[in-house]
Amino acid sequence: QVELVESGGDSVQAGGFLNVSCQASPVSHNLACMAWFRQRAEKEREVLATADAWGNKKIVRTLRGRFTVTRDHDHTVTLQMRDLRPEDTGIYFCASRPSRQCGVDLGHNRYPHWGRGTQVTVSS
Question: How far is CA 87 from CA 2, 13, 41, 60, 76, in A?
Answer without folding.
Answer: 30, 12, 10, 16, 26
